[in-house]
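> Could you send the HAT C-terminal dimerisation domain-containing protein prediction when you get a chance?

Sure thing. Input:
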Amino acid sequence: MLKRFVEYQSVIENITILHQSVIPGLSAPAVCHLKKLTFTDEEWDHLIPTRNVLHTFNEASRLLTGRRYQTLSVENVIRTSLLDAFTQHFDRKLSDDQKEALIISAYLDPHTFKRMTDGDRNTAEESILKQLITDTTIGKTRNIYEPGASQQRKNDPLDMFLIDCDRVQVGQSFQEFWSSYEMELPRLAALVRAYNIRPASSVASESLFSIAGYVQRKQRSSLASNTLRYSMVLRDRDILATLV
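Output:
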């Protein structure tokens, strides 16, 4: 609503300021009422920046709460882009584990990596190194690919990742990138599977459950022979289990 109001600024000013030429024959009370609705230049100067700020927050909310499955890497970029408005939320409301998960997932996504600040990248690198050293689960992935000691010193995983990020092809998706470099960076690929599958919001999963519930109700209300047969199987599944 505010966006449309600002877009029609010229129309509103014509009606409230130049009302006699736009709408001839207005009564004195109507003219007095229109004068009270007139916006000053200072009020427009406040209204337009407010529209711009709210538009940014609205776009961020739409990105995070859409039906598309957004992950933590996108959430981190949106949060840092909102700057001062999200500073308090970042510093005071998120736990250290949540902050670490956000920064690692953004670092491991080649597209959000480009939009990170140098400070965020340094923090992410320290967190990733700590995870690679201390996480015993990730250490098990060495069975997939175990280069020699000399090659490990020459090709540090983080250095290889930084080089590969510069070689990301235009239009190459997140899945394509890690499918190409999964064998070369097995330990970082394990971190990707641990962090970058986490959803940024529950909207996508809630939407899936809602659609599944709708389809289930629709199928139950149908009297087709297949539907009735499947319903009988589900009802008597305990009896059928003893017969199999």
